[in-house]
Amino acid sequence: MRRPSYLRRELLQLPLFLLMFGVACLSMFVPAGYALAINAHSTAQAFFYAGVLGTVTFLLIGVAHAGRRPRHGTLGPLLSLFSAFVFLPVVLAIPFVEALPTTRFAHAYFEMLSALTTTGATLFDNPARLGDTLHLWRAQVGWMGGMLMWVAAVAILAPLNLGGFEVTAQAEPGRREHYSNIMTPLSPRQRIGRAVRTLVPLYAGLTLILWLLLIYTGQAALEALAHAMSVMATSGISATGGGGGGSGGIAAEVAMALFMLFALSRLTFSSDTVTSAQGGLRTDPEFRIGMAFVVLVPLVLFLRHFLATYDMQSETPVTTALAGLWGGVFTVISFLSTTGFVSDYWADAQSWSGLRTPGLILMGLALIGGGVATTAGGVKLLRVFALYRNGVREMEQLVHPHSVSGAGAAGRRLQSGGAFIAWVFFMLFALSFAAVTLALALVGVSFEDALVLSIAMLSTTGPLTQVAADTPITLIELSLGAKAILCAAMVLGRLETLAIIALLTPDLWRA
User: pTM here?
Assistant: First the structure.
């Protein structure tokens, strides 16, 4: 077995939050180089100086920690992940506010937190105000946030049976399982290192492939890069302020929709977690339920509009009908994966029949969310499947009270109390939703807007604020207290309530 080098060994000894801080500072040189290439010298200076200052600070703290033996506690990695979402946006906002001095630091913090949690909500309705470099920075931060969740899912959340893994694990949420057949279990840092080596090249490679495909469809390089990063991270950030295929048309939307499938199930790109099942995607309940939503919801919307035009006895071109159907398919898979892009053909269905598609459908899709251990937010498809299996089983026992369950390959993935734990999470999510809604209403937000904002933040689907309500919600007009509540809701939605409760459990600190 090859021994790690001295530098690598010393890096592994540093606190996890400090390593994430160093990566964030080094990433600032990318927009600095881009700004220099497009002759935006003041913006380039802001990112370059912030990157240099942050990197020097990282090195000094790293030297101070040299030789110290870190505490490998059960709670340490989870606490580092929580700290990253709360404190890293402060560092990431420094070059943002320096490059855009007309905004407040609180607004820059909101933008960076929204990007890092892959929420994608923005305070700036006019894309021209930010400039190309800041659009790149927002998309890049969102991309890094998605990569962080890919790695954290297998290296931090899975060992603690959180983030959806509690439905399939035997141990209680927030506690590690004991494997008696493993002689030398991996430490948290070894798991993180292995996950980084395995997943980061895959994540970057898929992003590169999608970027090239979008350029081939006709999108500009920056627009294509922002869309590619946002699709892989499910952040919904666009350099043009819109969604869909943009200048790439329907070909770009098809490419983006195919890559959004990675957010429906972990099995679409990896089998490194306990949620993996025999048979691959064919028997994977998350992917099957997700595809059922992608097929059935657009068909229901299509039939709704078709019946409306049939009653009016109007002749509708076939191309308009098919465009409306595709607009429904793309938008449904986008909001189910909590990306939040709206198809350029989404409006065709509404103009075709004159009926407005209710935003409640999009809110429901975002609440359901994508797969466990993906970049998607929401409740997660595996928990929905657990409750579905429990409901079917209860109805079977009404007919055959003494029957014995013969769960198939998909059902065997769930532990005996998986449905109960999934129901507990639903209740916690509902309580969080109610608490955020009431808090927003107390600071002056209208009740309808508070509902939309709560779902958008807790499901990490920021674009809901623009499409779910009757009129788009202007976030920048909200009070500072309301923005603080939204920031807390984004962190809560990204880490989930069970993880926050695990951080507050006293016996975990002594583990």
Answer: 0.90
